[in-house]
Amino acid sequence: MSDQLVRVSTGGLLVVSAVTTEALRESVRRHAVCGEAAVALGRALSAAALLAEVDVGVVRVTLELGGAGPLGVLRADAKRTGELCASVARVVPFVMASPSASAGRTSLAAALGANGALRVERELDAGARTIGHGSLVTGEVDEDLAAWLNTLDSSRWALGCDVLLDADGAPVRSAGLLVVAGDHAGDEVARVAQALQGGALWRALLAGEARASSLPFAKGLLAPTSRSVAGEARALRFHCDCSSERARGVLEFLRADELAAMLDELGSAEVVCHRCSLKHSVARSELEALRLPASLRDANP
Fold it and tell me: Measured between alpha carbons, how far is 239 from 214 in angstroms, rounded to an integer?
């Protein structure tokens, strides 16, 4: 089933749900990770997709979370068009943390770490950017982002993102749920937040729930009402903005002697995207062209 995001208004609540399984699988394949690293990528992908949908005028959301754990900095990008990408700074061996008896989901407290920082950047359609900063306290990604969201204004926020792994640490399902309301529905949002923290989303994934449209109402999270109004569904997919042209652009910052040494020793170059781990090969002829003044490169392709 393809990844999808659905926006619903129900009982005075704004509810956004997303299934990000295929985007996570592609991210895991590119970065060659599993276990806690896969869970971290999945939670970040889902959270970024959800946040990119909430605010009118936002075209892109970038999340960065970094604690004291071995994963280093976790980063995720989501565009309003449904394109997702995520990365971790370091790959660590797969060591499955013991799931909580009450929640059942994998803990990221040791892998990502606590006592860190989170950064949320929103790119607006007018070209402006807003940047918010918060603290990484639990290291569970969704819990720390939810705590930060609830400091922003009078709105009440509940956020849950989770990943179901198989016995080898590979992702089976990945999804996220965001509920927003004003003070008038604060008690309901608080109830949903408590259910999410107690592992309701993880249990829904374990039960086989894989549709964004029904995810908000699984395991008693929300009760559909006669006022439920479904919004537009949006397809999600993995995508990185890197390209061979951008890879060559990185090499333009090298000095002439560094390019010459690269030509002598390697004959070509390979640039690895830090966001998606895709390798871009730069041929010898392209390296030689980079040694020319910029005004002469078009004449010497």
Answer: 25
For residue 292, give every residue at least 6 positions away whose Cβ sits within 8 Å of its Cβ, in sequence order, or none: 300
CB 71 within 8 A of CB 111: yes
Rounded to whole angstroms, the Cα distance separating 267 from 150 reads 54
- Grouped pLDDT means (10 residues each) for the chain, 301 residues: 87 90 95 92 97 90 93 94 92 52 74 92 90 94 96 91 92 95 80 90 89 80 61 89 78 77 78 77 76 52 49
Q: Retrieve residue 76's tokens.
A: 């995720």
Please tell me whether residue 213 adopts helix, strand or coil conformation. coil
Taken in order of first residue, the domains within the chain and their CATH numbers are 4-238 (3.55.30.10), 244-297 (3.90.1280.10)
Name the pTM for this structure.
0.85
Non-local CB neighbours of 208 within 8 Å, separated by 6+ positions: none
